[in-house]
Amino acid sequence: MTKEHTSQKEFIFLVALLTALVAMSIDTMLPALGTMASEFGVSDPNKRQYIIGSFFAGMTIGTLLSGPISDSTGRKPAIFAGLLIYAAGSVLCLFSTSFEMLLAGRALQGVGASSPRIVSMAMVRDGQGGAAMARIMSFVMSVFMLVPILAPSIGQLVLFVASWRMIFVGFLAMAIIAAIFLQIRQEETLAREKRVAFSVGNLFRSAIEFFRFPMAWGYTVAVGFIFASFISYLGTSQQIFAEQYAQGEWFAVWFGAFAVAIACAMIFNGRMVMRHGMRLLAKWAVRGCIAFSAVFLAVALNYAGHPPLWTLGLYLFCTFFCCGILFGNYNAMAMEHVGHIAGMAAAISGTLSTLVALSIGSWFGQQYDGTVMPLVYAFLSMSVAAMLVSEGVEWARRRG
After folding, report:
1. Residues 265-311: pLDDT tens digits?
2. Which of 25, 115, 197, 207 has the fewest CB atoms within 10 Å around its CB?
3. For the chain, what is the radius of gyration of the CA atoms?
4. Looking at the predicted structure, is the pLDDT value of residue 2 above 60?
5. ∠ CA 138-142-148 to the nearest 5 degrees?
6. What is the pLDDT of residues 221-274, one digit of tens each?
7. pLDDT over 80 at 69, yes or no
8. Dist CA 247 CA 237 (whole Å)
9. Is the dihedral of CA 142, 148, 150, 151 positive or negative?
10. CB 40 within 8 A of CB 170
11. In angstroms, rounded to a whole number, what is the distance separating the alpha carbons of residues 253 and 90?
């Protein structure tokens, strides 16, 4: 095995470790949502979704700043700053005495987690482009998706032996470990001569440059649509599986099975993208999401929104496989022509996609009425929207 090959594997693992903060911060919490809401006297069952939504809201704000800061200071200092903020948010959640204080801590966690998530993408773009970038991102995401497979079970295990507050002790430890790994194993990827001074003028000019490329903002919006479905799923999954279908502690197993579908899809994409290209794989994947959702919609309507559990599981597994292909390719195509402003482009792309996802996905989540219908409508409508946007972008690209 060559030294170069080993180095790339290590880089993939490091980026996956940094981005795993986001998945851990969301998925480990899911089994505890009901317990946390109950402890703080939250009467509306749908308000427990705010524990997830507040994290995404904070991440949206932090995303807009972390990319430009990394363009100015370098990638590593920006990530270290994010990890420090994330740790502060974890401490606030750990000692929270009210639901509002908990949400504030979650939002601060989101601000901090945005930097490892976004700046890691810029680190990849610093040295890769096109299909090669999509291949690395697919492998990064496949390692990253091992976290959702295990995270809910970890959260459930914590609840068996301790309070939900111990979950935040784990988050704090993970931030410290990530910082140490980054310091000793990763060199700075942005050379000093390529750094851009942090100023409002530079931010504005970079934003204008980003929106000059329809592929950049178009595929960013498409990512937001697909991501909106996942925010709806993340917000309601505990209610659907643990309560509607009375799965209780088995919820973590179901959640992990669907994460396996995404991990398999990203590994598949990493192997096939060099042969067939990003666009062809993405086109068939989004069509698959639409087809599976349309068929399951008929099934769900036939059972008045409460179809057999095995049909729901099969539907989500197939749909998540298609979405796993979409995430890697859509993100790579959004960044394909903006490598010269990678940090700012990653910031705009992440902020825009998360704003789209949070606003739409949260609305679908709040429509939960004890049936799976809002979730199915979310996946179907958002897949159609993503297909329309991506086809429009490709039409514009072909016309030159």
Report:
1. 878 887 887 788 788 898 999 999 999 999 999 999 999 999 999 99
2. 197
3. 20
4. no
5. 140
6. 999 999 999 899 999 998 999 899 999 888 888 988 888 888 788 788 878 877
7. yes
8. 11
9. positive
10. no
11. 26
Region label for 22, one of left (φ > 0), alpha (ψ between -120 and 50) or beta (otherwise) = alpha
Q: Which fold has domain 9-186+199-394?
A: Growth Hormone; Chain: A; (1.20.1250)
Any idea which residue has 């317990």 for tokens? 35
**Which tokens sit at 214?**
């329809």
Question: What phi and psi values does residue 129 have, to the nearest 5 degrees?
Answer: -155, 165
Q: Token pair 């698959």 is at which residue?
A: 288
Phi-psi region of 130 (alpha: psi -120 to 50; beta: other; left: phi over 0): left
Measured distance CA(362)–CA(316) in Å, rounded:
19
Please enumerate in sequence order all residues whose Cβ is within 8 A of that of 314, keeping only pairs 6 or more positions apart, or say none. Answer: none
Which residue matches tokens 């080993």? Answer: 6
Is the predicted pLDDT of residue 82 greater than 80, yes or no? Answer: yes
Q: How far apart are CA 293 and CA 377, in angstroms?
A: 8
Tokens representing 220 are 């960013």
For 48, which DSSP code?
Answer: G
Angle at 21 between CA 17 and CA 27, to 5 degrees: 120
Cβ 148 vs Cβ 25: under 8 Å: no
pLDDT-derived band at 4 (thresholds 50, 70, 90) equals very low
Residue in the block written with tokens 């069509």: 287
Count the Cβ atoms, other than its own, within 10 Å of residue 91.
16
Give yes or no for a contact between 289 and 222, defined as CB atoms under 8 angstroms apart.
no
Residue 164 CA, chain-centre distance (Å), reads 23
pLDDT tens, position by position, 31-64: 999 899 999 998 888 999 999 999 999 988 888 8
